[in-house]
Amino acid sequence: xxxxxxxxxxxxxxxxxxxxxxxxxxxxxxxxxxxxxxxxxxxxxxxxxxxxxxxxxxxxxxxxxxxxxxxxxxxxxxxxxxxxxxxxxxxxxxxxxxxxxxxxxxxxxxxxxxxxxxxxxxxxxxxxxxxxxxxxxxxxxxxxxxxxxxxxxxxxxxxxxxxxxxxxxxxxxxxxxxxxxxxxxxxxxxxxxxxxxxxxxxxxxxxxxxxxxxxxxxxxxxxxxxxxxxxxxxxxxxxxxxxxxxxxxxxxxxxxxxxxxxxxxxxxxxxxxxxxxxxxxxxxxxxxxxxxxxxxxxxxxxxxxxxxxxxxxxxxxxxxxxxxxxxxxxxxxxxxxxxxxxxxxxxxxxxxxxxxxxxxxxxxxxxxxxxxxxxxxxxxxxxxxxxxxxxxxxxxxxxxxxxxxxxxxxxxxxxxxxxxxxxxxxxxxxxxxxxxxxxxxxxxxxxxxxxxxxxxxxxxxxxxxxxxxxx
Length: 471
Ligand code: CS2
What we know:
about 10% strand; alpha/beta; N-(1-d-carboxylethyl)-l-norvaline Dehydrogenase, domain 2; Rossmann fold
């Protein structure tokens, strides 16, 4: 058996505390931080926080928190050992230790990848969901459970200790993600102590960011591949595509690493980049995931090996998504679409349709529903996106085309499955009734409901592949 990867952890303070130490952060933002420190130094090491389980901490600890990031190209694999983590904390085990790390004078940035549902907001409105179990808990207790709770309670400690706030940097796939996290933090802070909310509002910073790199969940097979590649056993590697992009609003209240040396785009307004990425990448990712899963495909590369789906993706980009976008400066959206088609087809990336299909109720508003609403307002055809939405509904019924059960992961899964009726029209009415998911304009749109019912009934009678082919 090969020796275990180990690097003695650097004895230097951490400038960043990161909430949500999943594979995405360790393969994306972490690579920009490591590049910036390699060229410019600085105490920008990271204390990682797992908000749920101890698994990542337990696998990283014997490695001195080091791990391998493996770039997967169609022609081979390139490993890189990452040594920027200084410590890993597991929030439910010791919430006070997490708050102390966030409140340390050396902490200047708290970044987050806690997934869409981690902000405890209503996806359709962006408002804090005060009825959320964790938020109800965090209002009553000093030791929090939710990500917004950790941010507010840590900022409260800093305020009480006369320390300046940290920058809160959201790295999740939400539109105007800095704005969303600022909104939920200020709403929660105001309920706890209005003076605290005023202080955060006046002195804090919540830059929006657009993050992009395809990072499938690491599988047990990957551990063997990494050992064969490096000669060392790593229990917590991350596997990622070569491409990476990071666009960051340059508004930090307590300094930041020199990310531009690593190719990060520091800009004044990230909105056009976010819209492009959420609608063109994540929107088609979700569309291909639901339809591809129903058609029996395990990964996005498998889906893209069927020409019918490639034509479908191209139709979505050209006719239904690009017309809704304002191109970011110096960006050619048709070339961006071509690059996405290549990235999706990379056979070295085994990105499961089932993984992307998770949490659709939290993802679809920004990925597909906003685009659909724009198309309806402009009287532009969106048969392809309507079919994707119907496929999400079909998927959340909990049964695939052969009648086998699907393990649907979504915070609303039981409610969605209970919306199913004999008539597609009635099922559609139930889904559209969900004001926390669907924008008002789509909920009131009779023509849209009819088109969606027809797409759903087509999926139920003809199946996903035939429906994609018939567009
Ligand atoms: C994917 C994203 O899982 C998903 O929902 O669409 O994780 C996607 O791979 C990244 O946003 C790419 O940057």
